[in-house]
Amino acid sequence: MIVDEIYSKNSERKLQEFNMRERGIISLKDALEKNQNGPGIIAEYKRKSPSGFSNKSNTDILKYFDGIQRIIAGISILTEAQYFGGTPLDAEAVQCYNKPILIKDFISSESMIKSSYMSGGDAFLLICDFLDYNRIKKLVQYGKKIGMDALVEVHDPASAKNIFPDENVILGYNRRNLKTLKMEDNSEEMYDNLKSYGLPVVLESGINHENINKLHIEKYQGLLIGSSLLSGDTIRW
Ligand SMILES: O=P(O)(O)OC[C@@H](O)[C@@H](O)c1c[nH]c2ccccc12
Hints:
The chain is an alpha/beta fold.
């Protein structure tokens, strides 16, 4: 499966050697907790996705965020190249918006977290469906040491056992199963469990103007939205 393959090649990934940071860390967790009037939008930029999205209009990243910077609480940048067309240079480029930047990658090591920091990232992604509890605990604690927040994401209810809650953690529910790449929404079943940790909860994937009023978004502190916004969808609730 594609995501397993991406993780398996992490040891071959070229990591960011020199520091591209232009500013101090901005906490994504703080931004979501302070967001007024409902969940904060984390707008994701990607050029393509194995689940079928492609940035047909080849939206320029700076033009894109110039247009939406006033309505978003954070930015998510795909940095994986092969399947998402990503690059750390995208993260470096969007530091100018002074919004917290989530490095959306298949992170499995401390060196990848350090690389995310050097690229200008403020937070990083850990996926419970692919990393075990001890690995997540180690990486959350490393991120905390260098001041970064971790978005600890779950899809399969069984993988919630890998959650390591700490003060720098934001929890995410991914409506998409990354093992099948299909939308399989267990958010109703999962919400109370995730909320019980007392941490911000972000709803992720497949959110658009047609379903946004059916997803009980008022319960969430954040919405991670990529494809629909990149395709010009107008999101309002
Ligand atoms: O483009 P969408 O359907 O709005 O989804 C955005 C984001 O949730 C999705 O890209 C995502 C959520 N978790 C991930 C983990 C890896 C790669 C991608 C993701």
